[in-house]
Every structure is written in structure tokens, then in C-alpha cells.
Amino acid sequence: MAEVEPPSCDVVDSEALEAPQAAHASEDGASKAVKQEIESSFSTSLLNLCKNIIGAGLLTLPVAVRDAGMIPYLVSITLLGVLNAFTFFLLGWCSAVVGASTFAELCVKSFSPRVAWVANLAVLLDNSMCCLANCVLIGDFFSKALSGLLPSCVILHGRAENLCIIGALLLVPLSLVTNLALLRYASLAGLGATAYVFALLLKDFVTLSDWSTSGPLLNNVTPLRPDFFKTMALLGSAFMAHYNAPKYYAQLQDRSVQKFKMLVCLAYGLAWLVFTAFGIFGFALFGFAAEGNVLKNYSFTPEVLVAWLSMGLSVVCTYPLVFGSFRDSSGLLLRKFFDVSLASIQFRLVFTCLGVAFTVLGGVAFSDVALVNELRGAILSPCLAFIYPAAMLLRTRSKRIDGTALPSLPSHTLSLCLWRLCCYSLLAFGIVFGAMALLVMFMSKTDFSVLTAAYPSHRTGSWCYACT
User: Fold this and answer.
1) What is the pTM of this model?
2) Distance of alpha carbon 424 from alpha carbon 121, whole angstroms
3) Fold of the domain built from segment(s) 42-454
4) Which residues pair with residue 252 across a beta bridge?
5) Are 311 and 197 within 8 A, CB to CB?
6) Residue ranges of the domains in the chain?
């Protein structure tokens, strides 16, 4: 997930890769930079928030259906969709209470300037995983595309070769650029690429999916597997856009709590619909052979090539935006221990070369983007989507803005005790969710090759695609 464009802009950057804005906190944790606030209309904010949530991360959702089963997938995606929407709203509400417009500022004003490093560390971890996921996707898309376009040029068929070439020729130079405004607008292509992939999968779902009793769909309805918690982690990563809640509230034109609530409900409702459909479409097509990146299941055809290249170029344009936030948050933490000038050319050059090399090597080592998103969802989603919002609500519930009354919470007639119970429940859910998701990642995994052989998803006579 890439650094998110302010809601006032026409687009925001891709999800699979969307990363939060770096927490620009000073030594004492409070933000000193004065930023121009540009108001955004409701429709523009809605478009940006939808794009913030819905990104390349949806490519992993067919695996989520495979791991959990149809009914558990529907239950978990509904539960996490509702909870993530609620906690996203709570962060906006807390921002209204304390007068914050960024996540770092919200942390400082809710707790203490001493906790600003927590915001920067969380951003650093999330950005690093987003950069790693981007590199995995770049390796996926370009190795598949170039193998079909240039079959005789064997050197361009491997992930490692492609990633090293693209890293040296594109990722490093683009990450060194100081003004990334053009890349932000270029990421508009990511919206079109995501829509194209969804349409491609929908078309194939209608014409090729197997609903017979011997097919994968009807044989994966209510399984009981520990892999269910991997699905929870993937969904937690997919719905996570919480770093940007304070900014969306602060820049919403004619903002009010009720208007922000409507914005969140519409955006998360659309995201839930897209995620639910995409996961089912992908699993219906490829069954238990579904890859962590569902586009890897396709073989070379002209329409699939368009999907590979458009998504690949979109991720390349997204990477520098994510990396810039990663570099800034890393520099702010390093400055506490070393004499580091974030604006110096030497720091930018050395950190960029080392950082890109590290993520490129990670992209070579990891070939499954779902694994990266599972780790991100297991570690960061519980903190950002449940633990932090609940803790901030507990801290800000008694605060006032310039002596004025608190904005209303939904169902504000609930007693204070019930709100506290809600917060503690969110805290407990986040801890249990994260612990179980991490535990399952280290347990023995289900061998889906047996199920693939038992319930194949192939259809003879269909146009060229293959489960690999």
C-alpha cells in the first residue's frame, strides 16, 4: 500500500500496495511543519478513499477464499469490513476532538509527544512491507509479460533479472526524484488497471467457472482449517487505510461527523462489495490452484498481457511514493540516535540505493505476495485498525475542542460504560486476532495440491488459460 495522495487531489495511489503518509514529527514528537489545507468535495474524497482501500491487494483475495472456504470467507470479510469502517470513523472522530489533521499529530495530541516515535515506527514497518510487496508484484508481472512478448530473450524471463534491471533503471532514479507530483497523477492508470482486471475476471467467471458438484466451489463451502486466520490477516491488510483517516476528515469540505460517517460507510461498503466478488470470482475460476497473485494463474493472451503490463507499470509508478514515505520515517527515527540531515543529497542517495536494493532482494526471495500481505495484516492491522483507535478513543472521550461540546458518536445515547466496553473489546479482538494470525503462519500448512487434483477447475475447450 503506497503513500496516499491528499483527498483534495483527483486520485490516490494503488492499494496492494498503498502505504500511509510518513509521520513528520519533530524531536519532541509534535509536527512543526505548517501545511496548506486544501478542502476536498465529498465526491472527490469518496473517490480517493475508495482508491485508497481498493488496490492491487485484492489480487490475493482468491487465496483467502481457498484458505477459509466460502461461508467463513463471507462471514470474516463482513465482520472485518464493518469493524474496519467503524475504527476508521473513530480515528476521524478523535481527530475532530483534538484538532489533528495527520496520524502523527493525532498520536501526539491523544497521548504525549513522547509517543511520536511509535507513529513513525509503525509507518516505517508498513512502508517497508509495502515496498517489498510492490517488488514481488513487479517480478510477477514483468516476468510473465516479457516471457510472452520476448520468448527468445531468456534473460528477461526470470524474476531476479527483471527486478534487478527495473530496480537499477527505474526504481532508484524515480525514488531519488524530489518532486513526485507527476507520478501521483500517473497513478491514475492504477485505477483503470484495477477496473480492467476486475472486468477480466468477471468475464471469465461468467463463461468459465465450474458450479458442478465436482468443482472447487461446492467442495469448499464450510471447511474447518487453521488457514482461516491467514484469511483474516489478508482481509485485515486489504481493508487497512487507517493512517489517512485524520487527513480525510480534516480536508473534507464542510466537514461534520455525520458527513464523515456517510463517506466512510459508502467507501467501505463499495470496497466490501468489490473484495467479496473478486475473491469468489478468482476462486471459482482457479479453485485450489489459485496463486497468491491471481494474475499468475493466467497464461499469455493479448488481453491478459494488457492486465500484466498495466498493473506492472502502475506498481512501478507507486513504488517511489511508498519509498519516499519509508525514507522519511526511517530518517526521523535515525535522527534520534545519529546526526542525520534528511535534506542532504548524501543521505538520500545512500539510503535510496540501499533501501531499493534491500526490497529488490526481498522481491527475489519472496515469490508469493499473499505471504507478505499476511504478515502485514497479522502485525500491523491489529495495531492500526483495532488497538490504536480503541486506545485513542479512551484517551479523547473526555476532551473538548476549544471548550466546545464533543461531536456526536454514532448511537451516542450509549452510556460511557458501554463505550468503554466497546473499546476494551476492540483492544482484546486486536490482540487475539494478531496472535492467532501470527501463530498460524508458523504452523504446518494445508496441502492444497491434493485438493487441486481432487477438484480441478480446468475446462476443456476454453480460451487459453492455465492453473499453475
Assistant:
1) 0.83
2) 24
3) Hydantoin permease (1.10.4160)
4) 40
5) yes
6) 42-454
